[in-house]
Design a protein that fits this description.
Chains A, B: InterPro entries: ATPase_NBD, Carb_Metab_Reg_Kinase/Isom, ROK, ROK_cs. The structure is a homodimer. In chain A, strand 2 and strand 3 form a beta hairpin. In chain A, the strands form 2 sheets. The first copy, chain A, has a 5-stranded mixed beta sheet with strand order 3-2-1-4-5. A 5-stranded mixed beta sheet of chain A has the order 8-7-6-9-10, sandwiched between helices. Chain A folds into 2 domains: about 120 residues, Nucleotidyltransferase, domain 5 (2-Layer Sandwich); about 150 residues, Nucleotidyltransferase, domain 5 (2-Layer Sandwich), CATH 3.30.420.40. The longest helix of chain A has 22 residues. By secondary structure, the first copy, chain A, is an alpha/beta fold. Chains A and B meet through strand 7 and helix 6 of A and strand 7 and helix 6 of B.
């Protein structure tokens, strides 16, 4: 019997990645559409998926967004700084014209799911996926289920302690918080400190890397203590193009200071890792969301 | 038909609270046994429950402890500072002589469960229970399930940013971390700063309360961002006998700085609350653990 054709959409703030594939993780085709005006962008997305005979769609959306199916705003983008997208019913705008079952979650929860189903966290019950790029987001799985709660985790905005050697000044890269992880580690903070440079251009600068690794370690320690995950997976451009993950590991141990004695912490090199799916963790998670929507 | 008689044990570092009751939350009898030498203490606990005809036992244990039934150390106390209890097979020492089905979790997860089944978080899917006493511990429910993961949350040890006005000095009340929540807010930190005083004796000291409330707010913001809970419930002596919870609420809002827009944050007085069950949240959670053990 033919496998049902599934659609996967990573709806990001910069681009929409559309793909088709199968439940086993095969990607057949994919296409990128820039995220511009909501109406025109979503029309293009619908047109792309309409031209393929998909039987379900999985959507991983940028946040904040309503991921609780019981919420009257389920599937809508919430109070995002991208004002044109505020209150856009993303799920409705796709599900109605396409007429197929749709799964919906945050982009980072989708990536977490991708790693837990197809990647380096296969079969694990408790997983944190962190992306460090223009922002920081965390997708979290607890007892095999993605975390939503009141809204969804916004663990990129946890408050960190400033390093006295940090040249960033009184403001940070986050408009809301002077000292949150996103405001100190993500792309805008890096540009602000180092004359508009990107993380990849600083990969060989030991001082810059040490500063960022120290902040990342602080954040990781909080995630370890709060979620007690079995693995932490780090993706996103800032982590992908620098040695930050490797540099953060010994700093995590220093900060924990022997408090947690577990095999995972003993083997920290396999506990805190870069993502495993060559950047496809998000779209593969969306494929899994589609599979679940079809089965449910 | 008679309801089955259930046993509930809050196994704390200071005392063992033993109780009998029914699945509906009725407590019939209870007794306290000081936590001293493991052998003698557990013998007394077994004797107490043996003298009642319980059909199942629910245990909420002090940590760190192995709560994963798949672990070879399930039910044992792990690397605790209470060295006599290290590696004690608490669950085995009770389940074997009593010969009844036993449920086992951390004391704080049991209290979280108590609030979610019988208390102010009834029916809620995502709940954080925090206790602030001689230490700080968090019990967490996500998607109606208690969080275990690699071990269990140790969210009392998350790192906070020191208040420059804090008179505590370079060390804190935690032997592991110079600036974790437990080391800055719990009993030992309070005694260290304020000449051996207890929190209750400082309830009317606005400077002391403001310092502690600021730290508590930092921790709460992290829990909100990480767990996205639908309610946060705070118990333990330090919170019970001071206005800390009320004082922390406006500080939480300040730190979030408008970032999260949800009905829960709007109604922060019902979102971050003192415990609801007159100190019985832990033992009632143990009763529920017993009920589940009997049914499983």
């Amino acid at each position: 019997m033919d496998q049902p054709l599934l659609g996967a959409l990573e709806a990001g703030g910069t681009k929409m990645v559309c793909a088709t594939g199968y439940a086993d993780g095969t990607i057949l085709e994919s296409s990128e559409i820039p995220t511009l005006d909501p109406g025109a962008t979503l029309e293009q997305v619908v047109a792309w998926f309409s031209s393929h005979d998909i039987q379900a769609l999985g959507i991983g959306a940028f946040g904040p967004t309503a991921v609780d199916p019981a919420s009257p705003r389920f599937g809508s983008i919430l109070e995002t700084p991208k004002t044109a997208w505020r209150n856009v019913d993303l799920l409705g705008a796709l599900a109605q014209p396409l007429g197929v079952p749709c799964g919906y979650d945050t982009d980072v929860n989708a990536a977490c799911l991708g790693e837990a189903i197809f990647g380096c966290a296969q079969g694990m019950s408790d997983v944190v996926y962190l992306t460090i790029g223009t922002g920081i987001g965390a997708g979290v799985m607890v007892n095999h289920q993605l975390v939503h709660g009141m809204m969804h985790p916004e663990a990129g905005h946890i408050l960190l302690t400033r390093d006295p050697a940090d040249p960033i000044g009184t403001e940070s890269g986050c408009p809301y918080h002077a000292s949150c992880a996103e405001g100190l580690i993500a792309g805008p903070a890096i540009k602000r400190r180092w004359g508009g440079k990107r993380a990849s251009e600083l990969a060989d600068d030991p001082k810059a890397m040490a500063l960022l690794a120290g902040y990342l370690a602080q954040a990781l320690v909080t995630y370890i203590l709060c979620y007690s995950p079995k693995k932490i997976i780090i993706g996103g451009g800032v982590a992908d193009h620098t040695p930050l993950v490797a540099l953060a590991r010994p700093r995590v141990r220093e900060l924990l200071n022997g408090y947690l004695v577990t095999p995972e912490i003993e083997n920290i090199d396999t506990y805190i890792v870069n993502n495993s799916l060559d950047g496809r963790q998000g779209i593969l998670g969306c494929l899994e969301l589609a599979r679940r929507a079809l089965e449910s």
